[in-house]
Amino acid sequence: MDKTYVNKGQLAGEWYLVNAEGETLGRLASKIAALLIGKQHPNFTPGVDMNDHVVVINASKITFHPSRLDSKMYYRHSGFPGGLKSDNLKGLLDKHPERLIHMTVKGMLPKNRMTKHYLENLKVYAGAEHPHNAQAPQQYEVDK
Q1: Distance (Å, whole) CA 30 – CA 33
Q2: Among 32, 37, 95, 134, which is least packed by CB within 10 angstroms?
Q3: How many domains does the chain fold into?
Q4: If you average pLDDT over every residue of the chain, what do you get?
């Protein structure tokens, strides 16, 4: 039985630019997760970082159902007694819209040792400006 070998030095990786304006959070995050894993490549190999980078702009302009803004809650714990903190979707979107996309994409990635490598290749910005113009990211259209 032959084994498949991938030379990681040959994987150049691509840069994608995703505009989050007017997109739904879950659908957008699943597309970003697939891009980070590299499933769009014909030589995709599970367990190998394809070295693709995703730059997300306009994170603060994601759309939600109006009732979901107040009802959806996010929780975190400091590790100390009584350290449970909660915030609703509207508050998190106002304060840290990039953190919202980052958490959602992290939840859609496989839970293994590659998750950390995938998340290092995700860059999220609240506005339209980003410092990655030198990498010439190609525009990626999220299907509606």
Answers
A1: 5
A2: 134
A3: 1
A4: 91
